Structures are given as C-alpha cells and as structure tokens.
Amino acid sequence: MLQDFCVADKTSQVLVNGFACKDPKAVSAEDFFFSGLHMAGNTSNKQGSAVTGVNVAQIAGLNTLGISLARVDYAPYGQNPPHIHPRATEILTVLEGSLYVGFVTSNPDNKLFAKVLSKGDVFVFPQGSIHFQFNYGTNSAVALAALSSMNPGVITIGNAVFGSKPAISGDILAKAFQVDKMVVDRIQAQF
Amino acid sequence: MLQDFCVADKTSQVLVNGFACKDPKAVSAEDFFFSGLHMAGNTSNKQGSAVTGVNVAQIAGLNTLGISLARVDYAPYGQNPPHIHPRATEILTVLEGSLYVGFVTSNPDNKLFAKVLSKGDVFVFPQGSIHFQFNYGTNSAVALAALSSMNPGVITIGNAVFGSKPAISGDILAKAFQVDKMVVDRIQAQF
Amino acid sequence: MLQDFCVADKTSQVLVNGFACKDPKAVSAEDFFFSGLHMAGNTSNKQGSAVTGVNVAQIAGLNTLGISLARVDYAPYGQNPPHIHPRATEILTVLEGSLYVGFVTSNPDNKLFAKVLSKGDVFVFPQGSIHFQFNYGTNSAVALAALSSMNPGVITIGNAVFGSKPAISGDILAKAFQVDKMVVDRIQAQF
Amino acid sequence: MLQDFCVADKTSQVLVNGFACKDPKAVSAEDFFFSGLHMAGNTSNKQGSAVTGVNVAQIAGLNTLGISLARVDYAPYGQNPPHIHPRATEILTVLEGSLYVGFVTSNPDNKLFAKVLSKGDVFVFPQGSIHFQFNYGTNSAVALAALSSMNPGVITIGNAVFGSKPAISGDILAKAFQVDKMVVDRIQAQF
Amino acid sequence: MLQDFCVADKTSQVLVNGFACKDPKAVSAEDFFFSGLHMAGNTSNKQGSAVTGVNVAQIAGLNTLGISLARVDYAPYGQNPPHIHPRATEILTVLEGSLYVGFVTSNPDNKLFAKVLSKGDVFVFPQGSIHFQFNYGTNSAVALAALSSMNPGVITIGNAVFGSKPAISGDILAKAFQVDKMVVDRIQAQF
Amino acid sequence: MLQDFCVADKTSQVLVNGFACKDPKAVSAEDFFFSGLHMAGNTSNKQGSAVTGVNVAQIAGLNTLGISLARVDYAPYGQNPPHIHPRATEILTVLEGSLYVGFVTSNPDNKLFAKVLSKGDVFVFPQGSIHFQFNYGTNSAVALAALSSMNPGVITIGNAVFGSKPAISGDILAKAFQVDKMVVDRIQAQF
Questions:
Q1: In this complex, is the C-beta atom of C24 within 8 Å of any C-beta atom belonging to chain B?
Q2: C vs E contact (3+ beta-carbon pairs below 8 A)
Q3: Is C139 annotated as a binding residue?
Q4: Are residues D21 and F17, on separate chains, in Cβ contact within 8 Å?
Q5: Which residues of B sit in the known binding site for Mn(2+)?
Q6: pLDDT tens across E61-117, in order?
Q7: Which CATH number is D1-153's, of 1.10.760.10, 3.30.230.10, 2.60.120.10, 3.40.50.300?
Q8: Distance CA E95, CA E114 (A)
Q9: Across-strand partners of D144?
Q10: Is C187 left (phi over 0), alpha (psi -120 to 50) or beta?
Q11: Touching F: which chains, 3+ CB pairs < 8 A?
Q12: Which of B134, C89, F5, F30 has the lowest tally of Cβ within 10 angstroms?
C-alpha cells in the first residue's frame, strides 16, 4: 500500500500484479461498496452449497488492501468440499445453523483439527491448509468468511485433481490415490 | 508465516513481535475457535455502541495469520466514533439495521467517502484512514467487521487526543483545533 | 524491490500501486536528487509551522525504495499539530531550537509518551500513532524527519475530522467529542 | 531479515515464527552447510519416489533466509504425487532422466499446465498450486528442486484428504469426489 | 502474489516494479520452462568461470514468484569472484568437482565463513553478503545455485568498484584501499 | 509490526530475528530517544570520516519499525569509502559543506550515478548498491543519512574484501582484481 487507495481499473489494458489503479479523482464511495450479502445463494447443486464472493472482483476498492469476504450457504447435508486458498487465511463465522468444519496440517502429520460450530461460533483455517465445512443438520446453514487477501483464490481438491482441463493422466491419479484406474475414470467423469 | 501455524503462547515470559508459539503438539481445535459472536454487546454508553473483538487476544491460533474480526452493535442513534486501525484495512458487513458510514482521505484533500448502508451491504475502510459508522435509524443495528491484521489496534480520535494519560497540553490542542483553551478543558473533562 | 531501481514515471498514463518506472536508460543522477532542504519554510500560518516534504513526489528515484524525508520549521510557539502517518514510522532530529514532542498509544491505554528535545536530540513516532511537535520556546526551531515509506501520507486530525470535504455530520462529531453541536460548528468553520 | 543471519537455535525452549537464533559468536560455517545431496533416496515405496529435503530442518543457517532445496529421486514409473507447498514457489531442474510434470490453476478454470522435461530442463510450479512429477520412462530420474521458503511445507493431496488423523468423514469425501462411500473407505484404507 | 501467476509481458510499454503480466489466456506451459541447464558454460575468460542464469529474464513465468536459478561452471583454478546479490540469499549445490567457498559478514567483524565443498555438498550465502567460489582443483567443477528472488542482481566487486562507467575517481579508490593511485590506475585498466 | 511497539529487550536471553520486546508496562519515552547528534564525530583516521549511528543499537524503540539514522562527518578530503547497506536504502542530506557522492548499478552495466552536493541537497542510494561520499573541499562537511531498516548493516568493501578475519586467500583476490598477489598482500596489510 503506497497511497491511500488504488481502486482497481478493470478497463486498463496493462495487467499488473493485482490491478492498475483508477484515476483517484474518478473514485467514489461506490468503489468501496457491495450490496446483497443478505441474500442466500442457490444451493441446488451436487455439493449442496453456494459461495458468494466479495473480493476485488466485486469491490474494486479492495485492490492492494489485503482482505475480502465470502458468504457461504449450505443446504441440509450440503458441504463446502475440501479446498485450499493459496493466498489467504480464512476466519469463518456461523450466522445460521450448525456446521462441522476442519482443516488438515501438512506432512508428515496430516493432523485433522475439526469442530462442530453453532450460530455465533468462529473458526480459523490457516493459509494453504486443506479445509472443509459440512452442514450435518436438517436446516440450512449460513456462514460469513473473511480472507486475508483481496484475491484469495480457491482450489477445490476434487475439481483441480479430477476435473482439470486437460485431465491429469489416469495412471498418475490411480497410483497417487492407490486405486484402480477405472475408479479414477469414474471420478473424472463426474467433474 | 514460516510453519503451518504458530498458536500464541500467552504464558511465555519472552515477548516478541506478535507472540511466541505454543508447542504444536499441545495445539487443539479449541485454539482456532471462539464462541459468542451472535450475542449483542452492551450499548449503554455515551457513544451508544459496543465492539466485540475476535482477534489474537480471543483466538490464540490467529497469531501470524494476518486477519481478525469484530462484531459491532449500535443502539438507535448510536455510533462507532471516528477512529483508525493503524495496522489493518476493515471490510464491514451490515447484518441488521442501517448505518451511515464513511472514511476521510489524507492531506491535502481530506475527502470524505460516505454512504448509507442497509442489511447485506458491505463497505471498505482503507488501512490508516479515519472512519466511523453511525446508526441514524430508530432500530438497533449490527455489523460484522473483518480486519487485515491479527491485532489491528484501535485509536479512537476523541480518546487519544482528548483523553490520553497524561493529557496533551491544552495549549497544543486549543491551537490544533482553533478553539479556546476552555473548550479543550471541557472536552478533556469528558474523557 | 525487483530491480536496482524503478524511478517513478509521472507521465505514465497507467497508474499502479506506487508508480510505473521510467525507462532505465533515461535515468540520471538527477532522478535521485533534491535541492533546497537548507531553506526555511514559511511559518506564517495558524499553526506556526511549515513542512517541506522530500518524498516520491519530489525525488522520483524514491519509488519502491521505502523511505522519505521532511524538514519541519516551527515559529516560536508554533506546532506541528496532532497527525498520523498511515504508512510510516517517523524518526525526527532537532537541528535548531527546542521542541516538546509526543505520541499516544492505541486503545484502551491511550498513553502519552512525551519529551522535551534539544538540538541534536532524536525521537521516534511509531507507524500509525497520533503524534505532534510543539515549539514552546521563543526562538524558531527546525527538525529533519525521516519516514519509512516513499509516500508516508499525513492525516492531520483537525483537518480530517473537522475539515473534510464534504463535512462529517455535526451530530456525529458532537457525540464523538462529547460537546455541543454549536462547538462543532465553530470548529468546523475554522477548517 | 534484520541482521546478517539468525541461525536456528533448535534447543531454544521458546518457539517463535520460524526459530530463535543461536548466539552469533557460536555460529560457524557448518551452520550453513549440508552434505549428501549426490546420494539417491530410496524409491522402494508405493509412489516410487523419494524426497531428500534441505531446508531449515537440515541447515540451521537457512532460518529467516527464504529459500530451501529438495532432491527428488524417481524409480521407473515412479511419481511425486499431486501435492502443494503452502508457503513456496518451486523451480525444478531435471538432473537425470525424463519427467512429465504439471500444475493446475485455481477455480474456475482448473487449467493443467504440463510438459515433458529432459535432462537440463527447468520448470516452475507457482506457490500454492497442486503439482506433480511422473517418471514415465524406463530409467530412474533425478531432479533438484528449489523452493522460496526456508520451510515450504508439503501437503500431499492423497495423504491429507484420505489419510488424515483422525480421518475426514467418509460421507464428506464421498460427496466431495462424487463416489460411493465404499470407494472412499477403500482409498482411506491405503493411507 | 495477487493471482495464480503474472507471467512477465516483456513487450509491455509500461514498466513497473518487476514486469507487467501477459494476458492469462495467452499463457502456456512454455512460459514456465527453460531448457539447457545441462550444458556447460564457456569458462575461457579471465576468471575461469561462467554463470548461466535462469531468472525472470529466461523464464517469464517467474515474475512475482520470488525464486530463480543459476548454473556456474568453473575451469580448474577458476573462480566466481567476490560479489553480492543485493536482492537474494543463495543456496549452492556442488554437482561436480570441489569448491572452496565463503562469505564475509558486515562491519565491524568482517568475519569470513568458508568451507571446502565436494560433490553433493550444499552451502548458503545470506542476502547482501560478499561471497565467492574458487575451484582449487585440477578438474572442472559445476554448481547449481538457487536464489530467493526472481531477479537477484549481481554486483561483482571488481567490476563495480574498478570498472564502473564512468570510473570512480582514482583518488577515492586509492584512499579506500590504502594504495597508491598508480595501483588503482592499473586495476582500473583491467576492467 | 503486530503491536503499537516492541521495544528491544537487550537483556533477553532469547535471540530472535530483530529483538525480543520489553514488557510494554516498563516502556518510557526514553526508549524512543537519543541525544547527541549535533556533535561531530572524530575524523582523525585513514579515511577522514566518522559515522555516528542511531539505529536499534542506540534507540531500543526502533525495533520492528524499519528506519534508522546516521550522522557522517568528513574532514577536508575525507571520505566514506565504497560500501553497501545489505538491508536498507539510504537518503542523505548535506547539513554542512560539499560532497561528491555516487552509487554503482549491478552487472552488466555497472553504471555510476554521481553528483556534487551542497548544503541542503539530498541524494538517494538504492538498497544493496555500492556507494560512497567524498569531501573534495577544504572545509569539513556533515551529512545526515536516513536508512530504511532498524539495523541496516554496513559492508565496507575494503574491509570486507581485504580485511576479513580470516583473510580471503591472496590467490583469489589477485585473480578477482587482476593484480599481482604482492599487491594484494600490501593491501591486506593495511586492513
């Protein structure tokens, strides 16, 4: 941060680490604003969850400022499947319902730190760790996550490993997960 | 961040930038957990607001991870008076009610960026800027703020300028705010 | 810092965090140079002080390098009123005269660390803290300040709180400083 | 880096982000030295590969210096299965043999960038990305990897997702990978 | 790092700290790739050594990623003369032959940490320290160095002090090295 | 910076990157204060200059704050010989007299940026560059330097290359500077 703010200029033809800045004279309060985080996302999908991001893509004023948000909705038995944020720690607050959440540490321990959360509970997922949230209840749940980057990124393990474009070779994945190549084929077909 | 996590060891006799770390073998999920953010703070005070912080003081696992939260409750006509976070940008979400919020840029422009927010609205206060929230409505309001530091710090302008211990000399403040020294005396008496 | 230097190209139509760089082949010693810091600023103003900045606005070569200077002149009884640098720690050396200086810590202590300085004395104001210098003597004083940012920014409390454009509502400030709204009106009229 | 070096004092009872420093007077050239990277690791394991790390655990002098190494040996058809380094970018040089390598970008594209490498070829895996190396040839292969952290960390996807202690619930993983819970059980049994 | 990658766009007319980014849609695996590090450099020169750099100049994908490599070849009695990397720590692995290596600490101790290395040995040169490698053997030697910057920079002491363009005044160098000005003239004539 | 300040506790038996912190309750204004920068250093030495440092060694309160100062005195024809600060950019102000100053860029250009400075002139030496100041006048000169680190470090080229303990082998230096080994012996004898 080398000035009061550097609102992202998404029309700039020059791409830089982060975004180029709008002319400060053209900046208004709208550049620091987002509306609609009280509305539920559509959880009618395989995982039964929906993430509504509020990062530099939605609020241009977040450029260079190192923080962002996401609302997550969970249908009953819905989940935010195992994923990592390569550029951010996450701190999550349960607004409605209950969630079973956890993260796993790096090799060699691969220790799972997990906990059941209720409304008003807060949990931290350290940067780069694989983590998940699961709504094991019969009501829908809502959480608000804050992340320590203007653009935290999401790598959903299933999608990245079994659904990359082009696909990672089935031989590699079969050996990596110690399963028959046919199992890999079937998983890849889902993504 | 030089390891998966460095949970604050608040019993350490050695003080460092941030906190020393607990033995990782003694770390549990509780170290990343806080409970109670669904409960309103007590707004029966002069400003009519209450801040419930969730930073490294409440969640030891936030040490070195660069993020924290605060719930803010506002009575009708209550406000979170002008203040700065010397070490963090803030992104605030209105959970209930309406708020008039704003921040002021640095010299020489001292431009105010302000906006009325409703439930589900989000606003950003860049690091180091003087900012405030005011509940101009007849109902109480609630916001959840995320901050880009494990220990963002708060400098409430009124308290720091007129309520420091010991006091800043009245001569200095009278000239700084271009008022009679008696006015300064009266303000200082409030803090 | 990802190259030997990145001299600010102030003619660039592309704005970035900091500044775009001049073509290194066009850089000369003049880009790292400023002249005139031996000359006193004009202290004929309400605060009785003058700040002559030497930052990336004056020396284009400071871009990306994380440091800058300012000369401050103080008339007798003049002061550099309470202000913060949102992006820098300051280390100040008294070149002539005497100064009473101080800074205030964050909530909840709001502790004032203050001291009288004479010629050759040095004092540190930590990043983000409210601080001031006051020439309580009958001679003019001069100080040289170094700041840990190429563009430290200055938020003068009086100007930002009572002189923002547009103004912060008098109701908010009256409650913030626990004074009558008429007092706020009078202060705002000064800025 | 706030001094010439801060050699890790692994006997310190105080744990900090990184490591406490040895008394500089007791530091010798041995603290910056490691021997044995010319020797092959034992690849007689399920993945057919072996990683010999040279980070702050092996060279105490790397503490605070932001870099480390690893030698990787691959049996014929051996692989370094999909994994991430949460705290480092990797740049890998093939010393012997041939490797098929790749990394996958974050959501929503999950694009695979992959390439066959021969002796003397170099490839980059950006920080936080899932990546792998596969020796598809009939000879063993050797690579030297450099990483941009003194303690980059390794999260092997298979181990962390299917081999965590305690295990992530099979219901969660079955839904995450869109497979029958029995398949998850079988995979978990391998780890 | 504010996105998955920011591959250097070397055709950009806008220069920034580091490089502007290519359109991510135009990025391919080739942007993370370099070939030829198995080939020896030409050591037929005064110092008897050759450095083959693999940094952002050779691999555009290294932009913003904080790491690079260099292969160094040494003829018998050849050396990589005293130099510093102003922006990187170096970790060096001996691939072939033997080397005598060392670095010197800052004032006032100027302590030399030195060691003879054989094949498979690794040594660390902390950022900013003057260091060297000397092949005291009768066979050629090869090392692979990793550096903690995408563009570490090299300041060879001899070239910078005695071979700058224009030259540093002989009077200054004569006094700096406590020699006759004629000696300086003779050294300068070599560079 | 993870709290308002972390004043160096130089009595701590635990050494860390930088310094451990004093108990904040025991901190006073004296911890941010240094006296005596108006007094000239003793320039009766071979280089005819004296550096009076004001860094974390002199002001414990500078710990973690990223800035420091130095006063430099120059006898007539005295000089601050070629040196680098491995951890800081320097910005220098001439308080008295005239100086010829310069810095040299990295390989391959090794371009000298130099200029004659008078009282009130300011010049910047980018981090890691070899730079010098020479008083070519018949009066003594004084400069105040600010540096972008609490502990910038100084590597005087002459001392580090020719005066290290133990010495760098004369064979290495003779080849590095393309001189006869006897010349190296004579230079080494001076340091």
A1: no
A2: yes
A3: no
A4: yes
A5: 83, 85, 90, 131
A6: 999 999 999 999 999 999 999 999 999 999 999 999 999 999 999 999 999 999 999
A7: 2.60.120.10
A8: 18
A9: D71, D93
A10: alpha
A11: B, C, D, E
A12: F30
What is the Cα–Cα distance from F7 to F27, expressed in whole angstroms? 7
- The number of residues making up chain A comes to 191
Give helix C181-190 / helix C170-177 axis angle, nearest 10°.
110
Please tell me if residue E191 touches chain D, with a CB cutoff of 8 Å.
no
Tell me the CA distances in angstroms from F98 to F1, F119, F140, one per residue in order. Answer: 38, 6, 8
The partner residue sitting opposite F86, judged by closest CB among E128, E171, E186, is E128
Q: Which residues of B111-144 are buried (b: 16+ CB within 10 A; e: fewer)?
A: bbbbeebebebbbbbbbbbbbbbbbbbeebbbbb
Which element (helix H / strand E) includes C184? Answer: helix C181-190
Which chain F residues are Cβ-neighbours of B153 within 8 angstroms? 3-4
Of A133, A190, A182, the residue nearest A161 (C-alpha): A190
Residue F135 banded pLDDT, cuts 50, 70, 90: very high
Distance between CA F174 and CA F191 in Å, rounded? 16
Please indicate if any CB of chain D lies within 8 Å of the CB of B14: yes
For residues B63 and B8, the answer to whether their CB atoms sit within 8 Å is yes
- In DSSP terms, F72 is beta-bridged to F51, F143
F155-156 and B112-117 as β-strands: parallel, antiparallel, unpaired?
unpaired
Q: Which of B12, B23, B64 sits opposite D17 (nearest CB)?
A: B64
For chain B, the straight-line distance linking the first and the last C-alpha, in angstroms and rounded, comes to 39
From the CA of D182, how many Å to the nearest CA of chain B?
A: 28
Q: Do D20 and F16 touch (CB under 8 A)?
A: yes
Chains A and F touch (3+ CB pairs under 8 A): no
Contact B17 F21 (CB under 8 A): yes
Q: Which residues contact A124 (CB under 8 A, 6 or more apart)?
A: A89, A90, A91, A92, B32, B33, B59, B61, B62, B65
Which has the closest alpha carbon to E105: C149, D156, D25, A186?
Answer: D25
**Can you give the three-state secondary structure of D96-161, one letter per residue?**
ECCEEEEEECCCCCCEEEEEEECCCCEEEECCCCEEEEECCCCCCEEEEEEECCCCCCCEEHHHHH
Judge B/E contact: 3 or more CB pairs < 8 A. Answer: no
Residues 6+ away with beta carbon under 8 Å from E184: E162, E170, E173, E174, E177
Q: What is the rounded radius of gyration, in angstroms, for the C-alpha atoms of chain C? A: 19
How far does B181 lie from chain A, in Å, by closest CA? 33
CB B162 within 8 A of CB B188: yes
Q: How many residues appear in chain E?
A: 191
D59 touches chain E (CB under 8 A): yes
- Cα angle D63, E7, E149 (rounded to 5 degrees) comes to 25
Sequence spans of domains, chain A: 1-153, 156-191
Q: Could you give the CA distance from residue E28 to residue E19 in angstroms, rounded to a whole number?
A: 17
Closest Cα in chain A, distance from residue B186 (Å)? 34
State the pLDDT at residue A137.
Answer: 86
> Looking at the partner chain, which of E48, E153, E179 has a beta carbon nearest the beta carbon of F106?
E153
Output the tens digit of pLDDT for each of chain C's 191 residues. 999 999 999 999 999 999 999 999 999 999 999 999 999 999 999 999 999 999 999 999 999 999 999 999 999 999 999 999 999 999 999 999 999 999 999 999 999 999 999 999 999 999 999 999 999 889 999 999 999 999 999 999 999 999 999 999 999 999 999 999 999 999 999 98
User: CB of B185 within 8 A of CB of B170?
Assistant: yes
Task: Nearest by CB to F84, from E84, E168, E169: name it.
Answer: E84
Cis previous bond, B108, omega within 30: yes
Determine the Cα angle at D148 with ends D142 and D151, to 5°: 90
Give the E window 150-179 contacts with F, CB below 8 Å.
153-169, 171-173, 175-179
